[in-house]
Amino acid sequence: MCGIVGYVGDAARNVSALDIGLDALARMEYRGYDSAGIAVVRPGELVVEKKAGKLANLLDQIAADGGGDSSRFAGSTCIGHTRWATHGRPNDVNAHPHVSFDGKAAIVHNGIIENFAELRAEIEAAGIELTSETDSEVAAHLLALAYNAGPTAGDFEASALSVLRRLEGAFTLLFTHVDEPGKIIAGRRSTPLIIGVGDDEMFLGSDVAAFIAHTRQAVELGQDNVVVITRDSYRVMDFDGTPAEGRPFTIDWDLAAAEKGGFDSFMMKEIFEQPAAIRDTLAGHFVDGRVILDEQRLSDDDLRQVDKVFVVACGSAYHSGLLAKYAIEHWVRLPVEIEVASEFRYRDPVLDKQTLVVAVSQSGETADTLEAVRHAKTQGARVLAVCNTNGSQIPRESDAVLYTHAGPEIGVASTKAFLAQIAANYIVGLALAQARGTKYPDEIESIFDQLEEIPAKIERVLGLKGQIHELAEELGPIPTMLFLGRHVGYPVALEGALKLKELAYIHAEGFPAGELKHGPIALIEEDLPVVVVVPSPQGREILHSKIVTNIQEIRARGARTIVIAEEGDESVRPYANFLLEIPASGTLLQPLLSTVPLQFLSAEIARQCGNTDIDKPRNLAKSVTVE
Ligand code: M6R
C-alpha cells in the first residue's frame, strides 16, 4: 500500500538526503498517493515536511520553504513516505513521518498495527497527546518512551526492537532518532522492505525502484527481520536482536524500465510492452519438447497426485485465474475452483495434500492472496505462486513459483502483468497436462507454438490505438457501460469493466452474454454502449453463433455495440456500431488479444472524463498490503 524510503549518506560529502529521498518518493508514489512526507535527520534536530495529496503538493511546500538549496534541509539521512490511507483521513496531520512527543524520534510505517487502540490508550495514560488519527503514530511515541527511560534508555537499537516486539499486525517501520543521525533502524513483518547497498551510502525502499538510480545491489529481508543501516554498513537481526541473514541479489532491470520511455503515462508504455512481456514470460519454459517451470519445488510425481486445483487471486489477477480454469479443465481434466483471495480462507474451503493452490499476484505482496496462501498451507495443500516480483513474500511462502517476466509495472491499472499472468497460468496448465499425460507431447508443443505467435499478433492489435481514440470521441460522455462475453470472453469482459471503473470512474459491469436475458438486459436503453467480445467463428462455432444472437438482442433495444471480433468475421459487421478487429487465434488464446483494445478504450475514455493521470487512479494503490 504505502511507499517507504530511507537513506543514509556521507555527511562529510555534503550529500542532500532530501533530494535523494524526494526522488525515491517519486518512484514509490504509485504505491499510495493520498499524502507524502519526508524527515531529514540532523544532529539534535528533525526537519519534517508532509502534505496531503500527491507528491507534487509536498514538493511545492518544500520549495516554498526554501527547497533543497536551503540550509534548513541540509542533512545526509532521511526517511520518507507516500501514503495510502487506512486509519485516518488523507490529510496533512495523518501524513507520515510521525514524530514523537519530545520531537526527537520520527517514524514511517506501511501496513496496519492491529493492536494500536490498546497502545494508544497506554500512551494517553502516560499523559501524551496523540495528534493524528493513524495507527502508526503510536510507534513514534513508544520509541521515545523506550529511549527516554527504563531498561532500554539511551539505546536506540534496543528501544526500536522493544517497540517492534510489541506490535501486532503487518508492518514495515523505519525509525530515526536525532541522537544518532547517521542511522536508520527498520523492521518488517508481512510487508516489504528491501535494502539498497551503495558506495558509501545505504538505501531502504518498499521496492527496488526506490534506489535503482543509485545501485543495483540489493538485500531482501526475511519475515520478522530488522536491519540497522549506516552509510557504510547494514546489519540484519530478528526482533530479539539475534543476528540473521538477508538475501543479497542483483537487480536485473534498469532505470529505463521504470521510466516512461517517451509515452505520456506508464500505463500506455506498459500496454506497448505486452508483446515483450509475453515473449519473456514464455522464454525458457519449453525446452527439448518439455514444459519447464521456474523454481520447481514440486516434482512431476507431486503434480500427478493433485486431484483438485484452486486458483486464488484478486482483481485482474483473479480474472487471469478465471482463464486458468478454462484452460486447465480442458487440457488436464482436473476440477479447478477459482476464488477471490479475500473470501478464500473465511469460507473454509475443502483442501488437503492433493490440492494444488495456484496463487496469482503481480506484486507478490497482496495481503488477501498472501493470507489465502498461508491458509492453504496450514491445510496441507501445495502452493504454486505465479508472480511478477522476484523474491516477494507470496513466492517465498509458496512451494513453487512461476515468474511472469513482465518487468516492473508502475501503472496502478494492470495491463502487461495481466497478459503475462494468462500466459503463465497456461504454462502451469501445460505442465500439469504433461506430468499427467492428458495431452500428447505434440499437442503441448502445438499449443506452445501458438502461444509463441501471440506477441506478433499483439503488435497488430496495438495498431488499433488510433481507431479506439476516435471511437471514444464519438461515444462522448457516457454514464455507464456494459461488457459481454462468452466462455473465455467472459473474463475479458470482467477485465474490460474493471479497467473502465478504475481509470474513468465510470460504472461498468461485465456479464456472461448468456446471462443477459436473466436480468441485465433490463439495463439496456437507447445509446447505452455495450462491448461484446466475440469468439472465433472457427473452432467452437456454437459459441460464436450464440453471441451473434446476443448482439442482435441488445441492438434491437437501442444499445450502441462495440464489437471485438476476429479479422474477416463478416457475420458480426451488420450489428456492430463499432467493429474492432483482432487477429485469429486458438479459442483459449484469444483473451491475450481481445483484452488489449479494452485497455486502450478505458484509457481513452478516462482522458475524456478528465482523468489526466491514468497511472494513479483515485483511491487505489498498486500493492494492496492490507486485508
Ligand atoms: O499484485 P496483485 O496482482 O496481487 O494485485 C491484485 C489486484 O490488486 C490488481 O490486479 C488490481 O485489481 C489492479 N489494479 C487491476 O488493474
Automatic annotation (TrEMBL):
It comes from the Bacteria. Its main location: cytoplasm. The active site is at C2, K622. Residues 299-438, 471-616 form the SIS domain. It is found in: Cytoplasm. GO terms for cellular component: cytosol. CDD domains: GFAT, SIS_GlmS_GlmD_1, SIS_GlmS_GlmD_2. PROSITE patterns: GATASE_TYPE_2, SIS. Keywords: Aminotransferase, Cytoplasm, Glutamine amidotransferase, Repeat, Transferase. One of its GO terms (biological process) is fructose 6-phosphate metabolic process. Pfam families: GATase_6, SIS. Its EC number is 2.6.1.16. Residues 2-232 form the Glutamine amidotransferase type-2 domain. The keyword Oxidoreductase does not apply. It is an enzyme of class 2 (transferase). One of its GO terms (molecular function) is carbohydrate derivative binding. HAMAP family: GlmS. Homodimer. This is Glutamine--fructose-6-phosphate aminotransferase [isomerizing]. The gene is glmS.
